[in-house]
Description:
Strand content: 5-15%
Structural class: alpha/beta
Function: Phosphorylation of dTMP to form dTDP in both de novo and salvage pathways of dTTP synthesis.
Protein name: Thymidylate kinase
Strand order of the largest sheet: 2-3-1-4-5
Number of helices: 8
Number of strands: 5
CATH architecture: 3-Layer(aba) Sandwich
CATH topology: Rossmann fold
Helix content: 40-55%
Binding site for ATP: 12-19
Pfam families: Thymidylate_kin
Oligomer: single chain
Enzyme class: transferase
Largest sheet: 5 strands, parallel
Mean pLDDT: 91
Radius of gyration: 16 Å
Order of helices and strands: EHEHHEHHEHHEH
Low-confidence stretches: none
Amino acid sequence: MNHSGLFIVLEGIDGTGKSTQSGLLAEWFRSQGREVVASREPTDGPWGAKIRATALSGRLSPEEELDLFLKDRRQHVEELIAPALAAGKVVILDRYYFSTMAYQGSRGFDPAEIRRQNEAFAPRPDLLFILDLDVDSALARIGGRGDTANEFEKRDSLAKCREIFMALKEEPFVHVVSTDEGPEKVQAAIREIAAAHAPA
Protein backbone atom coordinates (compact mmCIF):
# COMPACT_ATOMS: atom_id res chain seq x y z
CA MET A 1 0.00 0.00 0.00
CA ASN A 2 1.47 3.32 -1.06
CA HIS A 3 0.78 6.17 1.31
CA SER A 4 2.28 9.46 2.41
CA GLY A 5 2.00 8.74 6.12
CA LEU A 6 4.23 6.80 8.50
CA PHE A 7 3.03 3.52 9.97
CA ILE A 8 4.70 2.39 13.21
CA VAL A 9 3.82 -0.68 15.27
CA LEU A 10 5.06 -1.60 18.75
CA GLU A 11 5.03 -5.28 19.66
CA GLY A 12 6.39 -7.57 22.33
CA ILE A 13 5.22 -9.90 25.07
CA ASP A 14 3.13 -8.63 27.97
CA GLY A 15 5.05 -6.51 30.46
CA THR A 16 7.43 -4.84 27.99
CA GLY A 17 5.80 -1.40 28.22
CA LYS A 18 4.22 -1.16 24.77
CA SER A 19 1.36 1.08 25.87
CA THR A 20 3.69 3.49 27.68
CA GLN A 21 6.12 3.67 24.77
CA SER A 22 3.33 4.08 22.19
CA GLY A 23 1.95 7.03 24.13
CA LEU A 24 5.35 8.69 24.52
CA LEU A 25 6.13 8.25 20.83
CA ALA A 26 2.79 9.76 19.82
CA GLU A 27 3.45 12.79 22.06
CA TRP A 28 6.89 13.24 20.52
CA PHE A 29 5.60 13.17 16.94
CA ARG A 30 2.88 15.67 17.85
CA SER A 31 5.57 17.94 19.32
CA GLN A 32 7.24 17.79 15.88
CA GLY A 33 4.05 19.14 14.32
CA ARG A 34 2.86 15.82 12.87
CA GLU A 35 -0.74 14.65 12.90
CA VAL A 36 -0.83 11.39 14.85
CA VAL A 37 -3.39 8.62 15.14
CA ALA A 38 -2.60 6.33 18.06
CA SER A 39 -4.56 3.11 18.40
CA ARG A 40 -4.31 -0.44 19.72
CA GLU A 41 -5.40 -3.97 19.02
CA PRO A 42 -7.66 -5.56 19.93
CA THR A 43 -9.66 -2.41 19.28
CA ASP A 44 -12.63 -1.11 21.24
CA GLY A 45 -14.91 -2.06 18.36
CA PRO A 46 -17.45 -4.90 18.50
CA TRP A 47 -15.01 -7.67 17.57
CA GLY A 48 -12.20 -6.34 19.73
CA ALA A 49 -14.51 -5.99 22.72
CA LYS A 50 -15.39 -9.68 22.44
CA ILE A 51 -11.69 -10.60 22.45
CA ARG A 52 -10.96 -8.42 25.48
CA ALA A 53 -13.84 -9.98 27.39
CA THR A 54 -12.39 -13.47 26.90
CA ALA A 55 -9.12 -12.53 28.62
CA LEU A 56 -11.01 -12.64 31.92
CA SER A 57 -13.96 -14.91 31.19
CA GLY A 58 -11.98 -17.71 29.54
CA ARG A 59 -10.59 -18.10 26.08
CA LEU A 60 -12.51 -19.18 23.03
CA SER A 61 -11.38 -22.02 20.83
CA PRO A 62 -8.23 -21.15 18.85
CA GLU A 63 -10.28 -21.03 15.63
CA GLU A 64 -12.92 -18.70 17.06
CA GLU A 65 -10.29 -16.45 18.58
CA LEU A 66 -8.33 -16.14 15.34
CA ASP A 67 -11.53 -15.37 13.43
CA LEU A 68 -12.35 -12.51 15.82
CA PHE A 69 -8.86 -11.06 15.49
CA LEU A 70 -9.11 -11.08 11.71
CA LYS A 71 -12.56 -9.42 11.75
CA ASP A 72 -11.39 -6.80 14.26
CA ARG A 73 -8.27 -6.02 12.24
CA ARG A 74 -10.07 -5.81 8.91
CA GLN A 75 -12.45 -3.21 10.36
CA HIS A 76 -9.51 -1.35 11.96
CA VAL A 77 -7.64 -1.18 8.65
CA GLU A 78 -10.67 -0.06 6.64
CA GLU A 79 -12.03 2.52 9.07
CA LEU A 80 -8.92 3.97 10.72
CA ILE A 81 -5.48 2.81 9.57
CA ALA A 82 -5.80 3.08 5.78
CA PRO A 83 -7.61 6.47 5.75
CA ALA A 84 -5.12 7.98 8.24
CA LEU A 85 -2.11 6.83 6.22
CA ALA A 86 -3.67 8.06 2.98
CA ALA A 87 -4.08 11.46 4.65
CA GLY A 88 -0.36 11.55 5.49
CA LYS A 89 -0.71 11.03 9.22
CA VAL A 90 1.59 9.12 11.55
CA VAL A 91 -0.19 5.96 12.70
CA ILE A 92 1.13 4.30 15.87
CA LEU A 93 -0.30 0.96 16.96
CA ASP A 94 0.08 -0.87 20.26
CA ARG A 95 -0.07 -4.44 18.83
CA TYR A 96 -0.96 -5.56 15.30
CA TYR A 97 -0.96 -8.81 13.36
CA PHE A 98 2.47 -9.79 14.65
CA SER A 99 0.83 -10.31 18.05
CA THR A 100 -1.70 -12.60 16.38
CA MET A 101 1.20 -14.54 14.85
CA ALA A 102 2.81 -14.85 18.29
CA TYR A 103 -0.16 -15.48 20.58
CA GLN A 104 -2.22 -17.61 18.21
CA GLY A 105 0.99 -19.25 17.03
CA SER A 106 1.59 -20.30 20.62
CA ARG A 107 -1.80 -22.07 20.46
CA GLY A 108 -0.71 -24.23 17.55
CA PHE A 109 -1.36 -22.17 14.42
CA ASP A 110 1.38 -21.66 11.83
CA PRO A 111 2.63 -18.07 12.30
CA ALA A 112 3.56 -17.82 8.61
CA GLU A 113 0.01 -18.74 7.58
CA ILE A 114 -1.44 -16.19 10.02
CA ARG A 115 0.85 -13.58 8.50
CA ARG A 116 -0.24 -14.50 4.97
CA GLN A 117 -3.92 -14.19 5.92
CA ASN A 118 -3.37 -10.77 7.46
CA GLU A 119 -1.12 -9.30 4.79
CA ALA A 120 -3.80 -10.09 2.22
CA PHE A 121 -5.63 -7.01 3.55
CA ALA A 122 -3.53 -5.37 6.29
CA PRO A 123 -0.69 -3.03 5.28
CA ARG A 124 2.77 -3.85 6.53
CA PRO A 125 4.17 -1.20 8.87
CA ASP A 126 7.05 1.05 7.85
CA LEU A 127 8.63 0.39 11.24
CA LEU A 128 8.05 -2.48 13.64
CA PHE A 129 9.57 -2.12 17.10
CA ILE A 130 9.78 -5.34 19.06
CA LEU A 131 10.18 -4.44 22.72
CA ASP A 132 12.13 -7.32 24.20
CA LEU A 133 12.37 -8.60 27.76
CA ASP A 134 13.08 -12.02 29.21
CA VAL A 135 10.00 -13.92 30.35
CA ASP A 136 10.84 -13.94 34.07
CA SER A 137 11.26 -10.15 34.12
CA ALA A 138 8.06 -9.71 32.12
CA LEU A 139 6.09 -11.87 34.56
CA ALA A 140 7.55 -9.91 37.48
CA ARG A 141 6.41 -6.65 35.86
CA ILE A 142 2.94 -8.03 35.17
CA GLY A 143 2.64 -9.07 38.82
CA GLY A 144 4.05 -5.75 39.95
CA ARG A 145 1.32 -3.76 38.26
CA GLY A 146 -1.35 -5.49 40.32
CA ASP A 147 -2.63 -7.88 37.67
CA THR A 148 -2.94 -11.57 38.20
CA ALA A 149 -1.46 -13.25 35.15
CA ASN A 150 -4.49 -13.96 33.00
CA GLU A 151 -4.87 -16.70 30.42
CA PHE A 152 -2.85 -14.71 27.89
CA GLU A 153 0.09 -14.35 30.23
CA LYS A 154 1.22 -17.81 31.26
CA ARG A 155 4.94 -18.54 31.24
CA ASP A 156 5.07 -21.21 28.53
CA SER A 157 2.86 -19.17 26.25
CA LEU A 158 4.98 -16.05 26.74
CA ALA A 159 8.18 -17.96 26.02
CA LYS A 160 6.73 -19.23 22.74
CA CYS A 161 5.40 -15.78 21.87
CA ARG A 162 8.80 -14.22 22.45
CA GLU A 163 10.39 -16.83 20.22
CA ILE A 164 7.97 -16.00 17.39
CA PHE A 165 8.54 -12.25 17.78
CA MET A 166 12.32 -12.67 17.74
CA ALA A 167 12.14 -14.76 14.56
CA LEU A 168 11.18 -11.50 12.79
CA LYS A 169 14.31 -9.59 13.78
CA GLU A 170 16.23 -10.05 10.52
CA GLU A 171 13.61 -8.28 8.43
CA PRO A 172 14.66 -4.78 7.31
CA PHE A 173 11.70 -2.91 8.81
CA VAL A 174 12.04 -4.63 12.22
CA HIS A 175 13.98 -3.14 15.14
CA VAL A 176 14.45 -4.99 18.43
CA VAL A 177 14.70 -2.68 21.46
CA SER A 178 15.67 -4.10 24.84
CA THR A 179 13.44 -2.90 27.67
CA ASP A 180 15.87 -3.88 30.42
CA GLU A 181 16.56 -0.19 31.02
CA GLY A 182 14.13 2.49 32.15
CA PRO A 183 11.34 3.81 29.91
CA GLU A 184 13.25 7.01 29.11
CA LYS A 185 16.17 5.12 27.55
CA VAL A 186 13.81 2.82 25.68
CA GLN A 187 11.94 5.81 24.27
CA ALA A 188 15.20 7.52 23.28
CA ALA A 189 16.23 4.45 21.29
CA ILE A 190 12.82 4.29 19.56
CA ARG A 191 12.83 8.00 18.71
CA GLU A 192 16.32 7.83 17.20
CA ILE A 193 15.23 5.11 14.78
CA ALA A 194 11.85 6.72 14.06
CA ALA A 195 13.46 10.09 13.32
CA ALA A 196 15.74 8.50 10.74
CA HIS A 197 12.71 7.05 8.91
CA ALA A 198 10.21 9.87 9.28
CA PRO A 199 9.54 11.83 6.09
CA ALA A 200 9.83 15.55 6.62
